[in-house]
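Entry type: protein chain
Record version: 2
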Amino acid sequence: MARFQKKRRRRTFDRRPKFCSFCKQGEDPDYKNVLVLRRSITDRGKILPRTRSGVCAKHQRQLKTAIKRARILALLPFIRHQ
């Protein structure tokens, strides 16, 4: 009995080139700038990874530190209550 196997094709789609918004603006993440930091956390309060946020490795490390400092100073929540 010969089984027909489906050929699996890789999905080809155009990826948008990601750019670091901090490098583009020429600034570093700051714990006092809460509006910028809110874009880098999920609705549950988790820090977005580099692949989703689109920032470079250097600024991702600085972003992580800035979010943690803002949480300690109660500028950002640790978790969001629903």
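Comment: DSSP finds four helices and no strands in the chain.
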